Amino acid sequence: MAEPSPKFDPIGILAALERRRVSFIVIGGLARVIQGTGEITRGIDIVPSMKPENLRRLDAALTDLNARDSDGTAPSLEETIPNEPLLELTTDRGQIKVVPEPAGTRGYEDLRRAATREPLGAGVRSSVASVGDLARMLADLGREEDVPRLQRLRRLAEIELGRGLEL
Amino acid sequence: MRSAALLREARLRAGLTQADLAERTGRDRSVIARWEQGVVAPSVETLTDLVRACGFDLPLELVRYDASVDKELRKTAILSPERRLSTLVRDLDREEMADRG
User: Fold this and answer.
1) Is the minimum CB–CB distance between A140 and chain B shorter than 8 Å?
2) Per-residue pLDDT tens digits of chain B, which is 101 residues long
3) Which of A74, B10, B38, B83 might form a disulfide with B1, Cβ 3.0–4.6 angstroms?
4) What contacts A89, CB < 8 A, 6 or more positions away?
């Protein structure tokens, strides 16, 4: 019988990563929600710094979260990360995708410049990709189903800029 | 300003620096920086040329404007990131309860 999906607890996942001092940026649906698109998402996508020490910290955080792949086995970041475009895992607090180099970007160092640290509750302050970079990633994927999301992001960018100019 | 975001996105997706784009288009790097910051906006024709220099096109067509999306986004924009996240968790809980009947 298929394993029931664990209840999605984004703060629990982010807190586990921060406890291990993992350097990462939140991207994808959850980042769009945090930026204000008001959509529904059931997982978290992150771009980690690829420095070996950081990957060791990420490994430890994933172990804390009881992360496992589709076979139910614990991931080996050292083996997987250099060979796969993304690592999709289930944890006790929901789904997490580790994406070293998202579409249209050069990874962590590229996204870090425009990312902002956002207070998300329970003392968690995570780096979240900028609206512009979220649009860049979505646009580069070129998927028809992402068009409405992309349009919302572009409208959000305009609204944000308008609010900035009003201040 | 939509032109600022589009120009930056096109340049970054093409893997170009502002200096690279300036050289490709024969424009001053500082002008490109001002366009990307939204300080001033290029004309539609200039924007199209810049985007094409990045290897993309900018098809212009009229589509219906849905004001309700803006209204919804403006409502979310005034919430803190923490509140946006807690709203998501609440909505997911409601969905789950509805699924259970």
Assistant:
1) yes
2) 689 989 999 999 999 999 999 999 999 999 999 999 988 999 999 999 999 999 999 988 888 888 898 899 999 989 999 999 999 999 999 988 888 87
3) B38
4) A62, A67, A68, A69, A75, A95, A96, A97, A98
Amino acid identity, position A62? L
Interface ipTM = 0.88
What residue in A sits closest to B1 (Cα-Cα)? A158
- Prediction pTM value: 0.89
- In words, the CATH class of domain B3-53 is mainly alpha
Q: Is A142 on the interface with B (CB under 8 A)?
A: no
Domain boundaries in chain B?
3-53, 67-100
Distance from CA of B33 to the nearest CA of A (A): 15
B79-94 as b/e, with b when 16 or more CB fall inside 10 Å?
eebbebbbebbeebee
Q: Contact B77/A156, CB-based, under 8 Å?
A: yes
The minimum CA-CA distance between B72 and chain A, rounded to whole Å, is 8
From chain A, pick out residues whose CB is under 8 angstroms from the CB of B85. Answer: 10-11, 30, 33-34, 120-121
Amino acid at A63: T
